Amino acid sequence: MRGVVAILLVVVAVVSLAATPGDAVSCGDVQGSLSPCLAYLTGGGEPTDSCCGGVKSLLGNLQSQQDRQTACNCMKSAASSFGVRSDSAANLPGKCGVSIGMTVSPNIDCSQVS
Fold first, then answer.
1. Tens-place pLDDT, residues 13-25
2. CA-to-CA distance for 59 and 92, rounded, in angstroms?
3. Do residues 67 and 25 touch, judged by C-beta distance below 8 A?
4. What is the 3 state secondary structure string of the chain?
5. Nearest to 59 by CA among 97, 15, 106, 111
6. How many CB atoms lie within 10 A of CB 18?
7. pLDDT tens, residue by residue, 12-59
8. Of the candidates 38, 73, 79, which has an alpha carbon nearest to the alpha carbon of residue 55?
């Protein structure tokens, strides 16, 4: 009987987790969306269509303040790791025709992103 109760509790837990709306954004999501932009972000020029598609896709997935702060921290970390040019990063949203509601800068305080 205890085994049946334990299995029932596990099933209820799994169902409640599956019913939770939206998944939190991860650094893997951010990096995957922005990976087509790496050549632009490190070398300049013009972003590709796939880069802008990734930017737009990522923005569509940032539903909460926590998502936006997580994405901000991931981008800051990746920028320092990959040698991203700050001017290219700052200009990317505009070149892709989107507004992100903040200035892209290596000095941004991600905890202040709303």
1. 333 333 334 568 8
2. 13
3. yes
4. CHHHHHHHHHHHHHHHHHCCCCCCCCHHHHHHHHHHHHHHHHHCCCCCHHHHHHHHHHHHHCCCHHHHHHHHHHHHHHHHHHCCCHHHHHHHHHHCCCCCCCCCCCCCCHHHCC
5. 97
6. 7
7. 333 333 333 456 889 999 999 999 999 999 999 999 999 999 999 999
8. 38
Q: How far apart are CA 67 and CA 24, in angstroms?
A: 6
Compute φ and ψ for 79, nearest 5 degrees. -60, -40
0.90 cut: is pTM over it? Answer: no
Nearest to 106 by CA among 79, 70, 88: 79
- Best CA proximity match to 74, nearest among 107, 39, 36, 25: 25
Token pair for residue 98? 């989107």
> Six-digit token pair at 73?
């921290």
Domains of the chain by start residue, with CATH: 23-112 (1.10.110.10)
